[in-house]
Amino acid sequence: MSEIKLASRKSRILAYLIDHFVLSLFLVIPFTILMANEDIESDFLFALFPIWMIIFFIFYCLKDSFKGISLGKWVIGIGVRDENDRSDIPSIPRLFLRNLLLVIWPIEFIVLAINKNKQRLGDKVANTIVIKVREMGVWKKIVVVLLAIVISFVLFLSAIVLSMKNSEAYEAAITFIESNENIVGETGGIEGYGFLPSGSIQTSNGYGESVFTIEVKGKEKDIYVEVYLTKVPNQNWKVEEVHYE
């Protein structure tokens, strides 16, 4: 029988980073999409956010429930086991308790750094350890973490862009730009738009304000157009100001 080895502190931190970036998408992306929907009031989102945070935290604490591994641990090749029987996978309540203490993560990392058995506070409370399940080279770990970060960023950015472009406010801004003779003449004819518009949308009680900075690609030259719009109940978005350069 092969010797069971404790997971290194670096492996545990890398697994934590992967979990953190990937799971954070489930917290951020839904709200990003909802914020771009003018039919959902800002006051409702503010009230919903604490509830969603609680649901997310419960899900986060259960991340190791499948055979003592999370996505990050599976990628890195480590897993949670019982401290007294290193072949035994702890129960789900113990795994939940173990991750519950991540709410005080600065203390957790300090304890992990100084504990001789490479346990954090959550491990000590739940009587667990983290072991190597399979070997993985240092460079492979680094590459995996960087890929997780890049993929998470791309997905987050894509969610923002798609939500914004699918909003009624953005569509109203594009309609105005395409019907504006000065902008069409400045570009020599509109051929398309940049992939990454910037801006914001705010709505409350049927009233709304939004502002976008949109790259307009033209036959002769490209320009950036800033559009400010407002909305009143039971009416469409209305362009109030336009600036371009």
Mind explaining what this structure looks like?
- Residues 7-127 form the RDD domain.
- InterPro entries: Pra-immunoreactive, RDD.
- This is RDD family protein.
- The chain is of the alpha+beta class.
- It has 2 domains: 9-162, no CATH class; 167-244.
- It has helices spanning 9-35, 42-61, 71-76, 92-100, 105-114, 121-126, 138-165, 168-179, 181-187; strands at 78-82, 128-132, 190-193, 198-204, 207-218, 223-231, 238-244.
- The chain starts with 8 loop residues before the first helix and ends with a strand.
- The mean pLDDT is 86.
List keywords for this structure.
245 residues; alpha+beta; 2 domains; five-stranded antiparallel sheet; two-stranded antiparallel sheet; 9 helices; 7 strands; elongated; RDD family protein
What number of structural domains do the residues give? 2
Terminus-to-terminus distance? 71 Å
Quickly give the structural class: alpha+beta
- What is the average per-residue confidence, as pLDDT, rounded to a whole number? 86
SSE string, helix = H, strand = E? HHHEHHHEHHHEEEEE
> What is the CA-based Rg, rounded?
25 Å
**What's the number of helices?**
9
Main sheet overview: 5 strands, antiparallel
Shape call: elongated
What assembly state would you assign to the polypeptide chains in this entry?
Answer: single chain
Instruction: Please count the beta strands (DSSP E, at least 2 residues each).
Output: 7
Sequence stretches where pLDDT stays below 50 over 5 or more residues: none
Specify the helix fraction band: 40-55%
Q: What fraction of the residues are assigned to beta strands by DSSP?
A: 15-25%
Subcellular location: Cell membrane
Transmembrane segments: 12-32, 44-62, 95-114, 142-162
InterPro entries: Pra-immunoreactive, RDD
Organism: Bacillus salitolerans
